[in-house]
Predict the structure.
Amino acid sequence: MNQITPPPKLDIIPASAPFSDAQRSWLNGFFAGLLSPDVATPLSAEQGAAVMQAGDGDDGEAPWHDQTMPIADRMKLAEGRPVRRKMMAAMAQQDCGQCGYNCHDYSEAIATRSEARLNLCVPGGKETARMLKSLYEELDKAPAAKAGDKGADKADAVAAPAVTVTIAEPGRSRDNPTEATFLSRRLLNKGKSEKETYHVEFDLSASKLDYIVGDSFGVFARNDVGLVDQIIALLGASHTTKVNGKTLREVLIDDVSLSPAPDSLFELISFITGGAQREKARALAQGEDPDGDAATLDVMAALQKFSGIRPHPEAFVEALEPLQPRLYSISSSHNATPGKLSLTVDSVRYVIGKRKRIGVASTFLGERIAEGEKLKVYVQKAHGFGLPQDPKTPVIMIGPGTGIAPFRAFLLDRKATGAPGKNWLFFGHQRSDCDFFYQEELNAMKTSGLLTRMSLAWSRDGEKKFYVQDRMREVGRELWTWLAEGAHLYICGDAKRMAKDVERALVDIVAQFGARSTDEAVSFVAELKKTGRFQADVY
């Protein structure tokens, strides 16, 4: 492939011009090439169309990029946009990296056919997978554009450019993981806590894998053996039946997801049942909910619902989704403890009906993996979440519950590197006597001066629930002073409730102590986001 040497960066098209970032970047490059004293290789018509993506009715904006918005509302906002943009709207909008991309890049990869997997958006689940499948079929049906056609959707009709496949270094991608050794787990809760949260540690020395604070850690967990054996019993199969060169038991433990039952499983069931059962299976395969229990149907529950079916083990396995890795915020610093990495993990346990359910990865790390055992892992580079470049910059960190994970990493890293900037942590949970994670460690940081301020909020200690956003309002004047001094603000945790409430409190603080109207305060917070002074790692 011919390599094009880019012209020197020359910003001719102002940011206020009515172009998307991609369009503006292409135009700047075009004019820079014209004005450069060096001879530049011009882009071909196909390259120009693929890069600029002009004339497709898309303005480059993504008003649906809000993880709290229902998918139906997101798709409505994307009406009239090119298929590739509708695909982005179908994503979970978390930019979590579990798919190996951010939401925009995953949708672009699918639309250009450089990524064939439509089920990688873990937080989006079945809703996203169904929508992507439908949109992909729409992409297939789109007529090929002819030269000179007017009104053609250029971005969707342009033939996909040749894709150069680059294999990432081991441990730098979900598609090329490496091995780490599980070292230990330590329960962080005390007494009668309603939670079960662990500090877990890994040894990375053999892989020589490193990371920076703000990155996430991908873990390839294994399914619970007890659950696997129950499923095999429901199938009426043998543990040792060979499937794809492995035993059925090995495949169900290591390779496939046993969480929400996929549409393909219900399609399989519809082929081997009849009557009312077949109709129900078909309806479930199409995303309908004939009995009002679709949301509770994992693989085992689906087999119990259609009891007596005996699909061939190979067909059964083929109908399941691959077991996806899980991402966790890293709670350690490579600069502080090179060769080691830690996570802060909530074990997920709940009951539906009379059956106990568990989170796959969280309980794998919390109880099933043994010390010294190896597992497949990788580091997912952060998407716009990390410490400021200037170590003197003050930081405000808001992370209740396991949201403290990246901020423990931030503090350890600033200590290890001698960063002089001030540090303010907001932490909260249910009860101070049993849910104060890393209490001794944080108190020592406060005593040493590393942690300039620590503001705590406990929702169950008093008669009235009290959260981190309530604490923010109490110290609003001081918080505004830090922001006025140039502090960067970070949030980690629940997107649908905590993060929204925190942002609302921040707007109110800016309005009150920054002497701004509500609209001006909203614009101020938006500018913080735009300039990277307000970053979020939410889920």
User: Anything to note?
Assistant: Residues 10 and 490 are 32 Å apart (CA to CA). Residues 225-318 form a domain with the NADPH-cytochrome p450 Reductase; Chain A, domain 3 fold (CATH 1.20.990.10). The longest strand covers residues 178-187.
